[in-house]
Design a protein that fits this description.
heterodimer, B: alpha/beta, Amidase signature (AS) enzymes, 17 helices
C-alpha cells in the first residue's frame, strides 16, 4: 500500500504534530520508504501465532495498595512553562455563551 | 585521554582503597580527559563542580573509614536519557533542553549509593532514536577512531567517551541495539541485560517493551561490577523482574570448557568480510579455551527489522504523547488555541526522526491498520523469540556479528531506512528480551569490530564470563585510538 499526502495530514492531526507543506511532502516520501520495509511482515505465516506483548510473556506485577508517594506539587509545578497558583495555564478552551 | 581511566575500575579502585590515590585525584584526572575529548561532542551537560566535589568527598570518607566498596569513588557518565536530580536531562531533544528532573532514575541512585561519582551526561540520538548519533539536538558525536565517522547510536556519547579513555565506564540504554552497536563501532565492551533486569524508572521512555538499561566499559569485568550494582528488582518499575541483585563478577573466572557456542552462518554471509573474519577468529579463540561451536539458524530473524519498525514507533508514539507543552518541556510562543499549543510545541520540540517515528507509530496503531501491522508485528515477534528458544536448546550462547559494517562516515546514510539496517543483528535479541553483549574482536579498515554474544534470559553472568575469558587472551579491548595519544 501507499501513504498519500492526505494520509500524512490525517496522521499528523492524530499525532498532534504540525507539518509545513514541504515537511508533509518529505514525510510522505520517507513514510513510504518505511512502509516498504515494514511490509515484509505481510509475508510471514502468523495465523496460528499469538501476539507477543511482553518479551518474556510476563504479566503486569501488582503491588499492595498502600500510600508510597508524598505530594511534591510545588516542585512539579515549577517545571511547567506557565502556571497560575495551583493551575497549569493553557489557551482558553471554553467560550462564554 | 587518560592512562589512568584506561586502567579500568578494578585497577583504579584498588589504588583508591590502598590510599595510593585520592578520589579527588581520580575525579580531576577524568575531568581533564573529558575536556580533551571535547572535539568528540560526546557530553551534553557537565555536572556542577560543587556537586562533583560533594560526591567525591562522601566517597573519600567511605574509603578512609574502610567502608569503600568496589565502585566507591569511581567516576562515570550517564547517558542523557537517565533522569538526574538537579542535573539537566535533555534526552538530546529541544523538547527537554531546559528540563531539570526533580528525581533520580533508579539506575542513577543505585550507582550513586555504590559510591560512584557522576561527572555529567552523555550525548545520544534524540529520545534514543537512531544508530549513528546524528539525530541529537546538540549535534552529532564523533568517533574517536576517526572523527569523520559516526560512533554508532543511540548511546554514541557513552561509547565514545569510554573508547577515548575519558571515563572508565558509562551507562547506556538499548532498545534495538543502542548499546551493542556503538560499543562495536567504538571498540569497547557493552552489555544490555535481559528485559526487566535493570529498572526503567527514570529512564525516559522510548519503546517500553524493549527499552533496557546497560553499561559500557573497556573491560567485561568492569561491566560486571557496574551491572551488579545497577540491576535487581525495583518496585518503581512494574516490568522490573522480581529477582534481586546478582553478583555478575562471581563467574568471571569460570573456564569455558564444554561451552556450546552457536554460529549463525547466514548472518556471517551478510556482513562485511573484515567483520566475518573477526567473528570467525573469535570462534577459534573460544574453541582454544575449551568451547565447541556448531552452526544454528534463526529462520525468522530476517523479519526482525520490519517488525521492530512497527512495534518501536507504535510504543514511541504512545510514550511521547506526554510531551504537550503544558506540564514540562518545550512550549511554543503565543499559541492561538489549545490544539495550536499542542501541535506547535511538539513540532518545534521534536527533531525530524522523532517526528517520523511518532507518525509511523500513530499510523500503525490507527483504525484499519492495527491488525495488519501492529498486531501482526507482535506475532512476528513471537516467531523470532521462538527461534531463540529452539536454538538455546542446542547451545549456551550465540556468537554473531554486531553490525553489518564498521563505523560509517557522518552523513553517509541520508535515508532513514538504510540507517535502520545497521541494527539488523541486534534487533532480534531485543525483540526476544534477551541479554546481549558486544566485545572488541578485531579491526577492519583500521576501525574497531565487535563480536556479539547473545544468551538465554538471565544469562548475563555467562556472557560476561565468556567476554572476560576472551579478554584474558586478546588485546583488542586494550587498543586505543591514535588520534588522541
Amino acid at each position: 500500500m501507499t501513504i498519500t499526502r492526505q494520509d500524512v495530514e490525517q496522521i499528523a492531526t492524530l499525532a498532534k504534530l504540525h507539518l509545513s507543506p514541504s515537511e508533509t511532502e518529505q514525510v510522505s516520501v520517507s513514510l513510504n520508504q518505511v512502509l516498504a520495509l515494514v511490509d515484509r511482515i505481510q509475508a510471514a505465516d502468523v495465523d496460528a501465532v499469538r501476539p507477543m506483548r511482553h518479551p518474556r510473556d510476563a504479566c503486569q506485577a501488582l503491588r499492595a495498595d498502600g500510600v508510597t508517594e508524598s505530594s511534591r506539587k510545588a516542585e512539579l509545578m515549577q517545571l511547567a512553562p506557565e502556571t497560575d497558583g495551583d493551575y497549569y495555564l493553557v489557551p482558553k478552551v471554553v467560550e462564554h455563551p | 585521554m587518560s592512562e589512568l581511566m584506561r586502567c579500568g575500575l578494578h585497577a583504579i579502585g584498588s589504588r583508591l582503597r590502598a590510599g595510593e590515590l585520592s578520589v579527588a585525584d581520580v575525579v580531576a584526572d577524568s575531568r581533564r580527559a573529558l575536556h580533551k575529548a571535547q572535539p568528540l561532542n560526546a557530553v551534553i551537560t557537565e555536572a556542577d563542580e560543587t556537586a562533583i566535589d560533594a560526591q567525591a568527598h562522601i566517597a573519600q570518607q567511605a574509603i578512609t573509614e574502610g567502608r569503600g566498596g568496589p565502585l566507591t569513588g569511581l567516576p562515570l557518565i550517564h547517558k542523557d536519557i537517565f533522569s538526574t536530580r538537579g542535573l539537566r536531562t535533555t534526552c538530546a531533544s529541544r523538547m527537554l533542553a531546559d528540563y531539570v528532573p526533580p528525581f533520580d532514575a533508579t539506575v542513577v541512585s543505585r550507582l550513586a549509593q555504590a559510591g560512584m561519582v557522576t561527572l555529567g551526561k552523555a550525548n545520544m540520538d534524540e529520545f534514543a532514536m537512531g544508530s549513528s548519533n546524528e539525530n541529537s539536538f546538540f549535534g552529532p558525536v564523533r568517533n574517536p577512531w576517526d572523527q569523520q565517522r559516526v560512533p554508532g547510536g543511540s548511546s554514541g556519547g557513552s561509547a565514545a567517551l569510554v573508547a577515548f579513555g575519558a571515563v572508565p565506564v558509562a551507562t547506556g540504554s538499548d532498545t534495538g541495539g543502542s548499546i551493542r552497536q556503538p560499543a562495536a563501532l567504538c571498540g569497547v565492551t557493552g552489555i544490555k541485560p535481559t528485559y526487566g533486569r535493570a529498572s526503567r524508572h527514570g529512564m525516559i521512555a522510548f519503546a517500553s517493551s524493549l527499552d533496557q538499561a546497560g553499561v559500557f566499559g573497556r573491560y567485561a569485568a568492569d561491566c560486571a561490577l557496574v551491572l551488579s550494582a545497577m540491576c535487581g528488582h525495583d518496585p518503581l518499575d512494574s516490568t522490573s523482574d522480581a529477582s534481586g541483585p546478582v553478583d555478575y563478577t562471581a563467574e568471571l573466572e569460570k573456564p569455558l570448557t564444554g561451552l556450546r557456542v552457536g554460529i549463525i552462518p547466514h548472518w556471517l554471509e551478510n556482513t562485511e568480510t573484515g567483520i566475518a573474519t573477526a567473528v570467525e577468529a573469535t570462534r577459534e579463540a573460544l574453541e582454544a579455551l575449551g568451547a565447541q561451536s556448531l552452526p544454528v539458524d534463526l529462520p525468522n530473524a530476517d523479519l526482525a527489522v520490519a517488525a521492530y519498525y512497527v512495534l518501536a514507533p507504535a510504543e514511541a508514539s504512545s510514550n511521547l504523547a506526554r510531551f504537550d507543552g503544558v506540564r514540562y518541556g518545550h512550549r511554543c510562543a503565543a499559541p492561538a488555541d489549545l490544539d495550536d499549543l499542542y501541535r506547535r510545541s511538539r513540532s518545534e520540540g521534536f527533531g525530524e526522526e522523532v517526528k517520523r517515528r511518532i507518525l509511523v507509530g500513530t499510523w500503525a496503531l490507527s483504525s484499519g491498520y492495527y491488525d495488519a501491522y501492529y498486531r501482526r508485528a507482535q506475532k512476528v515477534r513471537r516467531l523470532i523469540a521462538g527461534d531463540f528458544d529452539r536454538v538455546f536448546g542446542q547451545v549456551d550462547v550465540l556468537l554473531a556479528p554486531v553490525t553489518p559494517e564498521v563505523a560509517f562516515k557522518l552523513g553517509e546514510k541520508a535515508d532513514p531506512v538504510s540507517l535502520y539496517q545497521s541494527d539488523v543483528f541486534t534487533i532480534p535479541a531485543s525483540l526476544a528480551g534477551l541479554p546481549g553483549l558486544s566485545m572488541p574482536a578485531g579491526f577492519s579498515q583500521g576501525l574497531p569490530v565487535g563480536a556479539q554474544l547473545i544468551g538465554p534470559h538471565f544469562s548475563e553472568a555467562r556472557l560476561l564470563n565468556v567476554a572476560h575469558q576472551f579478554q584474558q587472551h586478546s588485546d583488542f579491548h586494550l587498543r586505543t585510538p591514535e588520534a588522541f595519544t
